[in-house]
Amino acid sequence: MSSKSPITFSVVGREGEARAGILTTRRGLIETPVFMPVGTAGTVKATRFEALEEELDARIILGNTYHLWLRPGVDVIRACGGLHRFIGWPRALLTDSGGFQVWSLGALRKITEEGTEFRSHVDGSLRFLSPEVSMEVQAGLGSDIVMAFDECAPGKATHAQARASLELTARWARRSRGKFDELQREGRDTGFLEKVEQQVSGAQALFGIVQGAGHRDLRRESLQRTMEIGFDGYAIGGLSVGEEKSVMWEMVDEVAPLMPTESPRYLMGVGTPEDLIEAVARGVDMFDCVLPTRNGRTGQAFTSRGKLNVKNSQWAEDRRPLDESCPCSVCQRHSRAYLRHLHQTGEMLAGILLTHHNLAFFLDTMRRVRQAIRSGDFPKFRREFIERLSESGE
Ligand SMILES: [Zn+2]
């Protein structure tokens, strides 16, 4: 095993807590802050990979361990050469641990020290997910960034509940680290690259996750204990799960400045365009969220002037694009009137086009954020961006 790191991260621009960086993975460079489109079951829904790669220039997408493990199963993906080959995506992939999806099953799961037992939403069979199983599945998928298996406390968890969850997460983080290292030594990572151009090792990277619900002292302690184990990057988990928005920002304010400056920081499952800007201002580098894809399929567009619902009858004869300042191919070609018609008639193209525009808007926003930080204009950009979002009045 090489002594080189699986990823490198360097900060190339900074303004207040906000930072612009370059994350080098075994499958290419990623400029940060970055938004990662979510490819739940091996597909960023309603989006072709050509569009993701060429038009949208997404550098990294996310895959869900829980969904892929249940269907088609890790054996199938391993037999097909790993997740990159299976889905036809040559760029970087991050996989979550499955912990959050299983946690979201609520009454259908049982958490013990060993792991989580649950009923599959696919066929009702009894399944068991643990740090070891999650690491094995993620090695089989061969993603470039692997997430540690954690336990998420509810957003409004009491101090005692959040403390117990944090302790379990710390023990699971250690088990994740141990199993991950063992799998790397055994060569079980199906995505291993023998030859990489940059100074990285070709192996998978492992990120740790900070928990602690809405309690500042616990967030600090969770970070400390996660850093003691040592990971290639650090994520803030368990936010945007039912707590007040003000609590989320309080937690990010508390923890982000204490995270290692030389490692990427990832805020999991967040959020709206304004959330991304606000989190970047607090020092976060990486994001994922289903909003642009999920809302695209239900007729909601994100624009520079706020949300736009294509169902609205006011667009019936409107020849303007979704967003007059959007350079995406959908906005160059189609009117609100046409998109509304597609949606009203249940045409699948409606979801495809809206998803494309939404992803373009999220990715383009992050591109502009990076430029603003590098040129020292981020505070102005932030103010103007947030002001403009409230203009649509929807
Ligand atoms: Zn557009």
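^ zinc ion complex. Residues 316 and 337 are 5 Å apart (CA to CA). The chain has 15 helices and 17 strands.
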